[in-house]
Amino acid sequence: MIPEALALSAVLFTIGTIGVLTRRNAIVIFMCVELMLNAVNLTFVALSRMYGVTGQVFVVFVMTVAAAEAAVGLAIIIAIFRHGQSVNLKNINLLKG
Amino acid sequence: MPTHLPLFYQVHFYLFGLLAIASALAFVTRKSPVSAALWLVSVMFNLAALYVMMDAHFIGAIQVLVYAGAIMVVFLFVVMLLNLGHPDELSDIRGKWGRLAAGGIGLALLAQVMVLARTRFLPALQPPTNPVFGGAPARNAVNSVAEPLFTQHLLAFELTSILLLAAIVGAVVLGRRRTAEAEPVNSGGAA
Q1: For chain A, which end, N or C, has fewer CB atoms within 10 Å of the first or last residue's CB respectively?
Q2: Does B15 touch chain A (CB under 8 A)?
Q3: B32 touches chain A (CB under 8 A)
Q4: Is residue A77 part of a domain?
Q5: HEC profile for chain B?
Q6: How does pLDDT run across A63-86, given as a tens digit for each residue?
């Protein structure tokens, strides 16, 4: 089952990448990043069957970082929304020269 | 891990994998952020099922609790706080047929639960016995993850708490209203 799990992980990571590249809503892009983190977690769990339980420990750390990232990222999105009344990336172009 | 897995296991592995991929595709193609978030919850539940099938029971449990239960709720909370969801796209329960399908699936799941409640598990599927009730103190699902986490990776675990503290402070500071900036800096205790 490990090769199938790794293939599934690759597919999910690719879908997440496509979402990050094509979506315009900042919150949906954040959710796509969460999907990519989930795909990596699946790889860790699948390989932990082969190489011992350390992979599952890494998954715990990944989940913690994902929670922290979601909290800070969503706070940033709320701040951006207060600034421009929009979370569409088309309207967030302050860095464009 | 036997080299030749039973058909029951393989069928469910592919079922959950395909459901995860289908939910992910639905997730990136929905227009409404609320629909996308709910499809992502579906992906996470299917991944939790796969974790349990790959002997990572504790990871499966915290996948449901932390990802599907906490992180996605925060996402949905922000989507609804910013009023980004479109209510007209949400009411997509299709009258009679949707209710019939939902009722059928519910009855099937109930039947599965009834069958599972009276079946005898194979020895390989038996949950770890509770030492309180006279079983051997086996290395159960939590134990096997906790021991390397608190011995080999203790430093990383403690550093994670600092990361979470920084994230909490950062979220509070970033989410604060702009009017607080007009006040002097050292009046924070009064405010």
Answers
A1: C
A2: no
A3: no
A4: yes
A5: CCCCCCHHHHHHHHHHHHHHHHHHHHHHHCCCHHHHHHHHHHHHHHHHHHHHHCCCHHHHHHHHHHHHHHHHHHHHHHHHHCCCCCHHHHCCCCHHHHHHHHHHHHHHHHHHHHHHHHCCCCHHHCCCCCHHHCCCCCCCHHHHHHHHHHCCCHHHHHHHHHHHHHHHHHHHHHHCCHHHHHCCHHHCCCC
A6: 999 999 999 999 999 888 888 888
